[in-house]
Amino acid sequence: MKHQIREFPAFKINGFIALSIVLALGIFGSWQVWSTIQRLIEVLGRSLRVGDFADLAEIGAWLGATLIAVVIPSLSGFFTVEPNQAIVLVFFGRYVGTVQEAGFWWTNPFTDKRKVSLRVRNFNSKILKVNDAQGSPIEIAAVIVWQVIEPAKSKFAVDDYEQFVAIQSETAIRALAIRYPYDAPDEQSIPSLRAVPDEIALFLQKELQARLEVAGVEVVEAKLSHLAYAPEIAQMMLRRQQAKAMIDARRQIVESAVGMVDEALKRISQQQMIDLDDERKAAMINNLLVVLTSEQNIQPVVNTGSLYT
Fold it and tell me: Which residue ranges run through the membrane (predicted)?
């Protein structure tokens, strides 16, 4: 930036003390004006002398000038600050400080007072259609929780800090989608938007903080609120996910069945229940695998003869 904005507290005094002083000056000035008018009436009631009239006019002029120059402009110096609110002061185009303490205050009456809310706010981004790291079109949206922590920067570093937050948030969400795939075959080695939500939220928060720091904004939290494939490929991707889930389930079933068969053969051999040659072992393994991996109920076949007859 051409001019670096540095936040610092503004000059201020307690508003009730300043109000007491202004009221005292006003009462004193009014009393003086009233006394001057009474004296003027007395002079006009007697023989009018030019010197006495000039003295009274001079006193009245000074008192009037005091009321106009001190009391009346001082009234515009009073202001209140609500909790989680800040007042940025500008004196003839120059930033002269910020007041963040809640209460009733008085400051230079010729300063321009600009309010800035320090309350926590939510920004719900619209659903964006972008391509992920693998080039697949996806729909993505996020919820950004943010607040202003440096009011001077929010007022002078950017033109409209609320619009700046909205635009930069959408830009950061697009950068996030380009960096990660929606889904990955090996989720342990390749993080994806769907598999690691905590990592995604942390990356989005850091990305946003780097972009919004110039505006004096702190990102409290950032999380995805919507994540889906684009409608034109949603059905195809759903079938792929179903096929992958079915393959993974089959693999798990086969691995478990092989383990059970291996355990059964080992127990038969250890307990010497029966002596099996290679051919009988192969037949037993085949029957057990068919029973354990079949999706339908298996009807048993009673063999009354021998495997070799």
Answer: 59-81
How many whole angstroms separate alpha carbon 6 and alpha carbon 124?
30
Compute the distance between CA of residue 61 and CA of residue 48 in angstroms, rounded to an integer: 19
Instruction: Report the range out of 53-62, 217-226, 238-247 with the highest average pLDDT.
Output: 217-226
Instruction: Name the β-bridge partners of 3.
Output: none
For residue 149, what pLDDT band results from cuts at 50, 70 and 90? very high
Answer whether 81's CB lies under 8 Å from 105's CB.
yes
DSSP conformational letter for 245? H
Name the 3-class secondary structure at 189.
coil
Q: Please list, in sequence order, all residues whose beta carbon lies within 8 angstroms of the beta carbon of residue 33, skipping any fewer than 6 positions away.
A: 60, 63, 64, 67
Which of the pair, 83 or 67, is modelled with greater confidence? 83
Indicate the pTM of the whole model. Answer: 0.68
115 close to 143: Cβ distance less than 8 angstroms: no
